[in-house]
Amino acid sequence: MRRAGGKPRGFTLFELVVCILVISALATVLLQRLAYYQEAAEKAAMESTARAVKTGLQIQLAQFIIANRQLQAGVLEQADPFQWLERKPGNYGGLFREPLQPGNWYFDAQEKQLVYVVATGNRLELDGRPGEKQLRFRARLLKDRIRIAGGQVESVTGVTLLPVVPYRWPQGSQ
């Protein structure tokens, strides 16, 4: 195909190579951003579930206190925290089972720990455990000394869900 002036119409090989390079660079950036957003979504979902579990523990402790059964609060540190939720999330696997699917929660009954198996976690940093892809949490009762009738008594004042090993999962831009 030629134009009226006799010059060929269409792309030259050089122009085609430049277009391919630009498109591949854009695709690389897009894939990196998608991976980043997928990891950010996983982190948000994990933290949301952990907050729901913590709230469930706190509600159960409040029920023990209201019923004047504070001595039973120790069960909160021993039992599976997901049992206090009305509905368990779809990615809860129950008691420890093999194989562990990435992106799922399970309860390690032997260690009394709630475990999340990280699916992506490219930016996840566990203190002293490089390459580890499991976040472990443990329910802990908060206790305080209260003065009663001239003496002091240790009383349960709250419950929390703490990571067994400190971790950092940065959220900032990549």
The largest β sheet comes out as: 5 strands, mixed
Query: How are the strands of the biggest sheet laid out side by side?
Result: 1-2-3-5-6
What is the quaternary state of this protein?
Answer: single chain
Shape: elongated
Number of helices: 2
Number of DSSP E strands:
7
The residue ranges in which pLDDT falls below 50 over 5 or more consecutive positions are: none
Average pLDDT: 87
Strand content: 25-35%
Query: Residue share in helices?
Result: 25-40%
Q: What number of domains?
A: 1
Describe the structure.
- This protein is α+β, with helices and mostly antiparallel strands and 174 residues long.
- It has one domain.
- Helix content is 33%, strand content 26%.
- It contains 2 helices and 7 strands; from the N terminus they run ααβββββββ.
- The strands form 2 sheets. A 5-stranded mixed beta sheet has the order 1-2-3-5-6. It has a two-stranded antiparallel sheet with strand order 4-7.
- A hairpin with a 4-residue loop joins strand 2 and strand 3.
- The protein is elongated, with a radius of gyration of 27 Å.
- It starts with 12 loop residues before the first helix and ends in a 6-residue tail after the last strand.
Summarize the structure.
The protein has 174 residues and is α+β, with helices and mostly antiparallel strands. The chain has helices at residues 13-66, 75-78; strands at 92-95, 105-108, 113-117, 125-126, 134-148, 151-163, 167-168.
Characteristic terms for this protein:
5-stranded mixed beta sheet; single chain; 174 residues; alpha+beta
Write the layout of secondary structure elements.
Blueprint: H1 13-66, H2 75-78, E1 92-95, E2 105-108, E3 113-117, E4 125-126, E5 134-148, E6 151-163, E7 167-168
Parallel strand pairs: 1-2
Antiparallel strand pairs: 2-3, 3-5, 4-7, 5-6
